[in-house]
Structure formats: C-alpha cells, structure tokens
Amino acid sequence: MTIYARPLDRSFWTDEFLSRTSVGTAPFLFKNVIPAAAARPDDVLAGFAAIRRTHVAGTDIAAHARVYVGEDRRDDLLPGVLSAPGWDEGGFVQWLQTLTVAERFSLVINNLETVSPRLAAGLGAFLASLLDGWGVPLGGAELVAFVGNYAGTAFGVHEGFEDAFLVHLGPNPKNFYTWSAEAFEKLTGSKNPLYGDYSWLLEHGEHFVLEAGDILFLPRRVFHVGTQDEFSVSVAVPLYTYPDAGLLREVLFPELFASLLADRGPDHELSHPSPMAALAAGSGPVAQRLTDLARPTLATALEGLAAAVEQHASQRWNTILSNGGWELVDGDLARSEAAAAFNVEEVVPGASVSVIEPYRMLVSGQRIFLRGYEIAIDASVLPPKVAADLSAGTSITLPEDENVLAAIRALGATGGLHVTTRSIHMKDIAA
Questions:
Q1: Residue 427 pLDDT exceeds 60
Q2: Cα–Cα–Cα angle for 284, 289, 291, nearest 5°?
Q3: Cβ–Cβ under 8 Å, residues 304 and 256
C-alpha cells in the first residue's frame, strides 16, 4: 500500500494523481489518505447538531439537511428531525430510524464546512494541497455529507457535473460503482438517472470499496452510485469550476454594464425617461435611439474591459484563497460564531493573535483579504513582519501601536482571527 505524505505534497498532484486518473479524466481510489484525526463521523454529526440548534433558534444559515427514505426525499419528516430531542451517544442510527419510521435512511448535508470548524480545517488541509498542486477552482469547493445506512444513493445512478473527491470516514465500508457517460448510455439507452432496481447494471461498472481514510476521485460527467450494508459517513468535496463564458455572461458583463449605465439621479441624462414614441413613426426611432446609446457604451466598455476583468479576477482569486478554498456563502454559521467570539477588548499590547485554520490573510497591494472578505483598511498600517507572519499562519504578539491594534480589531470582524489575552501589563505584573 502506498504511504502518502500528510498533507499531500505537490509531487502527489503533479505525478501520481495525474498518472492514476489519466490527467483528471478517470476515477481512481486513493487508499488511506486522510488521517482519522482530520475528519471523523462524529464531526459530521456535530455539524448536523449545529444545524438542528439553529433551526430551533430560528436562525437562517447556509448549511441545510435533507432526509431520504430510499429514493424519496421526505421534506415532511425534516421539521421533526430538526426539532426532536437529540440522540444518545452512539445512538444516532436508532434515533433517525425512529424519527423516519424506516429501517434504512440517508441524510444529505450541504455546506457542511460552514457548521463544522473541525472539518473545514481538517479537510481544508487536503484542499490546500490540491490548490497548490493541481489548481484553484474559481468557484471554490464545498463539503457535502452523505450519512446513513441506505442501500443505494438517493439520487440513483446519476451523472456528476463537477470534478469531486469522495472522502470516506467510515465506520463501515461503502461500495461505489462508476461508468463513463458513453458506457452508461450504451447500457441504458439514455443519459437520464436510473432509479429503482439497477442491480443488473452494477456488474458492468468499475467497482471500488471505500474504507475510512480513503479518497475516491470522481471526474465530471462520470455516472456513479454508492451502496452499503451498514451505517457509514462520506463527505464529497465538489470543485466548482465555471465555464469562462458563464463568468462573463452571469457576472462580469452585468457588473461592467451596471457601472456604465448606473442610475445617477434624475438630473443625469442617463436617468431621463424615454420620450413618448410617435405611433405613426413605428418602432424604428426607438431602436435608433437605443442604438445611439449602445454604441458609445460598448466603446467605453471595450476601453475599460481589461481593467474590469483584472479587477474581477483578482477579487475572485483572493476571495477563494483567503477563504481556505471554500466557496463564499451567506449564512456561514462558523464564521458568525468566530466573529462573535473575537472580543475587541482583548486586542491589547502583548496579546497573541493568529489566523484560524484553514483560512488565510492575503495582502494584495494596499488591500487585505481574510476569510473571503476584503477589509477596508490600508495594508501599509501593518508592519511588514506582522503582515508576513499573519499571512504565513504564524501567531504574532501585538505591539504597542494603536494603528496596528485598530487594524487587528477590524480584521477580527471577519471571523478569521483568534486572540489570546496576555497583555504586556499583565506580564509585567506577573514578573
């Protein structure tokens, strides 16, 4: 059995990964990659407990759970599952069997990284190695948990649309089957998901047995399904890479033209209402008027296009990297709780401050990014060594500099910093 460096080093991605997966196009199971301390089934259940807690409190968060019995999504059961008294230690399976009135069940949790700091950090180390060795997905990544004793994946045999890694946490093994899109269509006559009894199809698929600590690479456009006999927990890490045309169409062009054609108040010519259109003249003059506005707007857009693209790419790049590679979403519970735990009154000379793993502080010119957010402070306020140490993930001792202290307080609002009180004055008194 191959012994992998932990975390994976760059050579794994540039050599073994590309070789084993035919340059990222074929499934492959990498055995015993994730140490048990980095990701455990109990960490997933703790994240689910956080979702239940916020449900009872009426707090809206990004992470959400779905309950399935067989291949049926049971939204009718979810309120009871989220609000019922919790399970006894070691009794989760029986607890959910009772609530679903079913012997077999599956629980799917999206954006688990926003409710489980342990998993965000533990699997964040794997993600950081991926970013360094393989590349950066411009939409970031997510943690999606699959929990249960289900006989087969609730979505049936289905196609994946992103490159993804399936991390198996155990405690029991899982069987996984994959088919290329071409093979699946030839076998079934369609590219639609296959539900019900597909046992006949399994013998035609590539079979993998996942055990705790294993990682299965699933390329996009590969059909797959998981089966198991006993309770287990797996966490998928989908990588969100968007078509360049989609980024231009959905994000960059709307941003660019919104800035050029923004409403500047009733006195600005761009905000003047269009005149009444003469019925007898038809639509021609209307089209001409819009064309006369569109031509100079497009010309101005073209002149500023390179700068706008650079600004967007830089913003997206720093957002994803400073957020540890995870996608940036509203309603990040772990971020909110970390920001609330950051007490600005503890930011005093002599206190120790560090960046919370797996997040990063990035300095880009005069801009600072931390945990996905750009902070409205001048980067030059931070002494070079302070900025370098925080960017490297090294803990710093705060100096007696009010400008630095003010900057750290502002950075703490992102939920990306941890402070340990040990002021200079306290140290002097102890001495």
A1: no
A2: 95
A3: yes
Q: Could you state, in order of their start, the residue ranges of all structural domains in the chain?
A: 10-238, 333-430
Distance of alpha carbon 376 from the chain centroid: 24
Which residue has better confidence, 126 or 424? 126
Q: Tell me how crowded residue 357 is: count the other CB atoms within 10 A of its CB.
A: 16
d(CA 160, CA 219): 8
Q: Hunting for tokens 């957002």 — which residue is that?
A: 319
Percent of the chain with pLDDT over 90: 90
Residue whose structure tokens are 């079979």: 207
Confidence at residue 2, expressed as pLDDT on a 0 to 100 scale: 82
Cα distances from 178 to residues 146, 154, 182, 210, in angstroms, run 17, 16, 12, 13
The CATH fold assigned to 10-238 is Jelly Rolls (2.60.120)
- What span, in angstroms and rounded, lies between the C-alpha atoms of 45 and 52? 10
pLDDT band at 267 (very low <50, low <70, confident <90, very high): confident
Q: Which amino acid is at 73?
A: R
Prior bond to 117 cis, omega within 30?
no
Going by C-alpha positions, the residue among 111, 51, 109 that lies closest to residue 323 is 111
Q: How far is CA 255 from CA 58, 233, 293, in A?
A: 34, 41, 18
CB atoms within 10 A of CB 157: 24
User: Nearest Cα to 165, choosing from 138, 140, 147, 143?
Assistant: 143
Parallel/antiparallel/unpaired status of strands 64-69 and 28-30: unpaired
In this structure, what is the dihedral angle of CA atoms 161, 167, 168, 169, given to the nearest 10 degrees?
-140
Query: From the CB of residue 404, how many other CB atoms can be counted at a distance below 10 Å?
Result: 20
